[in-house]
């Protein structure tokens, strides 16, 4: 059965096997001509004699069956030989994965045909979605916010005058098709009291790569090779931007990390400088997208900042792609307190303009009373799905189980990706 996997649709193997068979046939015909068919005659006479000895007569049907068996046997030998040649090469190039060669090729071919999906956001929510999306398509692109000013990313941003690498690192690791040890290495965070304390190795690696290449896009491209990334990761802009928020009481809070700490209702967020150029590759990804996904993640500090970069929101609105917003399951203290699903969507529209989103995906799995009580102690509550209010905004609504609540309440990577693809295929068919 393992050999038959090579004949799966989409493997692009059968055509070459047939070509190999034609070549073998022509080679055999050429040898027969060179030797004047005498060896073929001998083989044919032997077969007729064997059939006569076995049946007592010349049964041409049995002879034909023997001939077909020889053909099948020859094809099996060619298939096996071709497989062993490929395995020999793979064993040298990718020794750890040579045992699952057929599955690797089939998966690669299948995912290559997946739709172009562009995901816009930042923080851990974006990486959660990407971790599942890489199992659905190799054509996933992440456009990542660069407004982070806290922690390791903030320090590197100030010291080396680069875009904060933290969210970019998380997206690269999420899309990686590499060994667990490499992922652990990129996510490793130094401890102690040295200057390295608090920095992750991945952040330092991207920073060093940016210094070496002189360009963050090139640095991410080279880092993607190291991690065997299934997709692409781009910052929304390479400009050094700072996020601020105007609260409903008129006060202004500076800094992405400071906005949730004041615990006031946000009216609008801004970036400074107000006008910055987008990364051309990000614009190209939006234009090529068949699906554009926002979130999940912090509404005002991870998703909306991308829409404030020049041309990004305009390109998304012009796009004919299916635009889906994945609504958070729980409210976020200091950012979306008491927000309903429609309020999340309304904030997107207010910052990006009408047409920025077509559909919203919300969780419909019931959250246990114990979990709700636990999160209430942290000031977090389930986001109310006010279906009619969402529809009044002209936005379609999809409900699904998209969480993992085994220990904590988190979006589930595979459930998210599968439901995004389900929405895409459903709408495409209609």
From TrEMBL:
Record field: transmembrane: 16-40, 60-81
Keyword tags: Cytoplasm, Membrane, Transmembrane, Transmembrane helix
Cellular compartments annotated: Cytoplasm
SUPFAM superfamilies listed in its UniProt record: CofD-like (SSF142338)
Gene3D superfamilies: CofD-like domains
Database matches in Pfam families: CofD
Function according to Swiss-Prot or TrEMBL: Required for morphogenesis under gluconeogenic growth conditions.
Protein family per UniProt: Belongs to the gluconeogenesis factor family.
PANTHER family: GLUCONEOGENESIS FACTOR-RELATED, UNCHARACTERIZED PROTEIN YVCK-RELATED
NCBIfam families linked: CofD_related
Protein name according to UniProt: Putative gluconeogenesis factor
The species this protein was found in: Megamonas funiformis YIT 11815
């Amino acid at each position: 059965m393992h050999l038959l996997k090579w004949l799966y649709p989409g493997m692009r193997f059968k055509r070459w096997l047939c070509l190999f068979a034609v070549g073998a046939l022509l080679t055999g015909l050429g040898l027969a001509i060179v030797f004047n068919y005498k060896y073929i005659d001998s083989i044919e006479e032997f077969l007729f004699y064997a059939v006569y000895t076995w049946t007592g007569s010349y049964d041409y049907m049995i002879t034909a069956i023997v001939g077909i068996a020889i053909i099948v046997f020859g094809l099996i030998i060619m298939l096996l030989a071709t497989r062993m040649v490929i395995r020999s090469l793979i064993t040298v190039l990718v020794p750890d994965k040579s045992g699952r060669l057929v599955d690797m090729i089939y998966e690669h071919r299948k995912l290559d045909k997946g739709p172009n999906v562009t995901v816009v956001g930042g923080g851990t929510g974006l990486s959660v979605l990407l971790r599942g999306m890489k199992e659905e398509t190799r054509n996933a692109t992440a456009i990542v916010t660069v407004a982070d000013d806290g922690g390791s990313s903030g320090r590197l941003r100030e010291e080396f005058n680069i875009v904060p690498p933290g969210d970019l690192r998380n997206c690269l690791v999420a899309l990686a098709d590499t060994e667990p040890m490499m992922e652990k290495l990129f996510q490793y965070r130094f401890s102690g009291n040295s200057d390295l304390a608090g920095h992750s190795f991945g952040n330092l690696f991207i920073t060093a790569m940016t210094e070496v290449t002189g360009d963050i896009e090139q640095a991410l491209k080279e880092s993607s090779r190291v991690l065997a990334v299934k997709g692409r990761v781009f910052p929304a802009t390479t400009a050094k931007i700072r996020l601020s928020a105007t609260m409903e009481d008129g006060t202004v809070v500076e800094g992405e990390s400071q906005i949730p700490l004041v615990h006031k209702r946000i009216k609008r967020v801004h970036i400074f400088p107000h006008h910055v150029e987008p990364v051309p590759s990000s614009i190209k990804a939006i234009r090529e997208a068949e699906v554009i996904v926002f979130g999940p993640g912090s509404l005002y500090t991870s998703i909306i900042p991308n829409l404030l970069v020049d041309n990004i929101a305009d390109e998304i609105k012009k796009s004919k792609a299916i635009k889906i917003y994945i609504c958070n399951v729980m409210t976020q203290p200091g950012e979306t307190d008491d927000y309903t699903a429609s309020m999340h969507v309304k904030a997107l529209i207010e910052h990006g303009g009408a047409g920025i989103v077509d559909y919203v995906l919300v969780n419909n799995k019931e959250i246990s009373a114990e979990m709700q009580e636990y999160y209430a102690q942290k000031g977090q509550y389930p986001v109310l799905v006010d279906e009619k209010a969402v529809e009044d905004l002209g936005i379609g609504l999809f409900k699904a189980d998209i969480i993992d609540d085994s220990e904590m309440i988190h979006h589930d990577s595979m459930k998210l990706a599968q439901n995004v693809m389900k929405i895409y295929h459903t709408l495409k068919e209609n």
